[in-house]
Amino acid sequence: MDMLLVIFSIFKLIEASSGFHISTEGSKTIADIEAENATLILNCSYIEGTVIISDHAITWRKTSGDNVAGFAKPGGPDPVYYAGGEYLRNRSELVTPTANSTYALIMINKVTCDDEKPSFQCAIVYNQDGFKTAVSGEISMSLQKSSKQPLDSPLISSTELEENQDVELSCIGDVGKPPGVLKWWKIRNNNDFSLIKESDPIPDEAGNCEVITSVNTTYTVTRDDNGAFFRCTSHNNITKNEDPEDTLLYRDTIKINVLYKAMVLRIIRVPELDVYPISTSKLNLTCLADGNPAPTDKDYKWTFQPFHSNTTIEKNSNGKFLLFQSLQEADSGTYTCSVTNTLNSTHFLNVTIIVNGTIPEPKPSLHCHSNPCGALENCVETGHEYKCETNTMSVVGVLFIVLTIASLSVSFGLAYYLRKLHKVSQIGVQNSKISRGNANTLPMTETTGDLNTRNGTVPSNETKDAVYAQIKKP
C-alpha cells in the first residue's frame, strides 16, 4: 500500500475595508501512513456576525473555476456537491456552518494522487454595504510517498565472467514521491561496498504518485571482484539516503565468478640460505600460485637448468612441491616453476640454488639429565645446550651451616679452656698449702705403698682421708 504524507498550507484573506476575513486551513499533517487512511480537511471559516445573503453562498471551488461544493448559512439547506466535486462524493463529507460554528468543511477521506492536481479556493458572498464576495488564497496539496523495493526483474547479464570482461547491470523501481533515485553498489566479501551508479533525478509532477525509473550501467570486472555481488537500492526523502547495508529497499544479484589466468606469486625455500652446504639434509621448494579455476597438482611443472649450461631438465615433483635430499654441487642452478589453468595460459617464476662448501659438524646436544652443574648451581635447558646458574638459596643455606658450626666450635673451645684453667687453679692452691704445712706432714714424694709400710696396713679409703686431711683448709 502507498504511504502518503498530506501537506497543506494555511491562507488568510483580510479585507481592510470591512474587517471581514476568510481562513482556510488543513486540520493536521499526516505523515507516512497508508493512503486509504489519509484524510484531508479543507476548512473555510468566517467572522461571526457576517451577513451571508443567500443559500449556498459559501463555496469551495478549484482555481480552474469549477465549483466543488456549496454550503448554506446556519439553519439553511444541506450542503451540495457540484459537478466539479462529484469525484469526491463517495469518499468525502461536507460539514455546514451551525449556530455555534463558522466552519464550512470538506473532509476528504482516502486521499489519492488525483487530489493533488487541483488547487482549491473558498469564496463567500455576503452583504456589507452591498453584495460582496471574499475569496481565499489558493490551497495546494503535496503528497509524499515512500520509495519501494526495486522490481523483481533481471538485474545482471551474467554471473560468470573472465577478468576485464564487462557485465551489464539493470534495475527498475518506484522511487516514491517526491521522486528519489536508484543506486547500484558493489559489495565484496569483506563487506566493503562502493557506489557504482545512481539514476538521474526526476522532477515532481502533481497527480503522479507512482514514479518508475531505472538505472543501467556497464561494469568491468577484475580478479578482485571474484565472489562479490551487486545491490540495487531505492531512496527518496522519506527513506533517507541510507547506506546499502542499512536499507531494506534493495535487491541483490548472486555472487559473481570471475575467471582469471593462473599466476605464480612466489617460490618459498625452506631452509632459506644464500649458499647451501654440501650434503644439506633437506631442501623444500614450494610454488605459490593463484588462478580461477585454481591450478591442480598436474598444472604445476618444475624445470632445472644447471649453471654454465643451456640444457633444461624437467624435475619430478609433487605438484607445487619440489623436495631435495642431501644436496650436492650438481644441484646448483636455476629452478623454474610454471603454472597453468583451464584458460590456457602459462606463467612462471624461477629461483637460484647454490650448493658449495662443506656442512659443519652439528653441535652435540647437551642436557641437564647428566647433572653437569655444581652443588650450588641450577641447570637450565636452552635447546641443544644447557647453562648453569647459581642457586642463591643453596648458597645461603651453606653459609648458614658454616657459620653455625663455627659458632659451636668457638663455644666448645672456650668452655674447655675455662674448665682447664679452673682445674689448674685448684692444683696450685693445694700445692701452696702443702708447702706451708707442719712437720708431721708427709712428703709429697711418698707413695701410698710407703704409707702402708710405715703405718701398717691402711685401707685405701682411709688412706685417701688421711691424704686429704693434710690439705684441708684450717
Verbal overview:
- This protein has helices at residues 392-435, 448-455, 460-469, and strands at 3-8, 11-14, 21-26, 30-34, 39-46, 58-62, 67-71, 80-81, 92-95, 103-109, 120-127, 131-135, 141-145, 160-162, 166-174, 181-187, 193-198, 212-220, 229-235, 250-252, 257-270, 282-292, 300-306, 313-315, 321-325, 333-340, 346-353, 377-381, 386-390.
- Residues 1-36 and 433-474 have low confidence and may be disordered.
- It is built from three helices and 29 strands.
- A hairpin with a 5-residue loop joins strand 16 (181-187) and strand 17.
- It is mostly beta strands and 474 residues long.
- The strands form eight sheets. A five-stranded antiparallel β-sheet has the order 2-3-5-10-9, with no helix packed on it. A five-stranded antiparallel β-sheet has the order 8-7-6-11-12, with no helix packed on it.
- The relative contact order is 0.07.
- It has five domains: 3-145, Sandwich (Immunoglobulin-like), CATH 2.60.40; 160-255, Sandwich (Immunoglobulin-like), CATH 2.60.40; 263-353, Immunoglobulins (Immunoglobulin-like), CATH 2.60.40.10; 362-417, no CATH class; 437-469, no CATH class.
Brief characterization of the structure:
By secondary structure, the protein is mainly beta. It has helices at residues 392-435, 448-455, 460-469, and strands at residues 3-8, 11-14, 21-26, 30-34, 39-46, 58-62, 67-71, 80-81, 92-95, 103-109, 120-127, 131-135, 141-145, 160-162, 166-174, 181-187, 193-198, 212-220, 229-235, 250-252, 257-270, 282-292, 300-306, 313-315, 321-325, 333-340, 346-353, 377-381, 386-390. It starts with a strand and ends in a 5-residue tail after the last helix.
